[in-house]
Amino acid sequence: MEKDKYANYKIVDLDIKGNTVRYYLSNDDQKIKESWGDDWDDRPYEHNAGCVYTRYVDVVVDVFYPYDMIVTEPSDDWHYDCNSPFCKEDFKKRKAPRVCILYPAQPWERECYSQVMGDENINRIYYGDTLEKALKDSVYYMEVELDDTY
User: CA-CA distance, 63 to 118, in Å (whole number)?
Assistant: First the structure.
C-alpha cells in the first residue's frame, strides 16, 4: 500500500485492541459531518455506543503501535469509576481526544487517560484528525476490508 495514500483521510471512528487501532476514515466532508452510529449520544460510550455506520466510511485501516508504547482511551481510566463521562457525540464534537498515544518513557503514574490527555508531549487523536496524525509513532498500517454489517 502506498504510504501516503490515505494520509489526508479523516477519522470518523475507531476501535482499539491492545496497541492496534482500527481507524474508520472518510475523505468526504459531508459524510464526516453526518457520521453517526447506534447510541452515539449515550454515556458512557464504552457500554452503549456502536461503531460508525458504514455509509459514512470510505476506508478502514489498522495501525500498529510499538509494543512498549501505551495506547489509552477514556474507558481504560480507573479515575472514572468504571464509566467514562463521554459519549461518541462528545468525541465527534472534539470535546476530548478519543485516544492518547504515550511515549514509552512516560512514568507509569501517568498512564491514565485523564492524567495525560492535556500533555503536549502525548499524541492525542480526535475524531476529525487526519490519518497522518494517527500514523505518528506507528510502525505499520494496512487497509482492511470494510464490513457492511452495520
Answer: 23
DSSP three-state, residue 90 = helix
Per-residue 3-state assignment (H helix, E strand, C coil) for 30-92: HHHHHCCECCCCCCCHHHHCCCECHHHCCEEEEEECCCCCEEECHHHCHHHCCCCCCCHHHHH
pLDDT tens-digit readout, 87-102: 999 999 999 999 999 8
* pLDDT > 70 fraction of the chain, expressed in percent and rounded: 89
In this predicted structure, the answer to whether residue 149 has a pLDDT above a threshold of 60 is no
3-state secondary structure of 120: coil
H/E stretch holding 88 reads helix 88-92
DSSP code at position 150? -
Which H or E run includes 12? strand 10-17
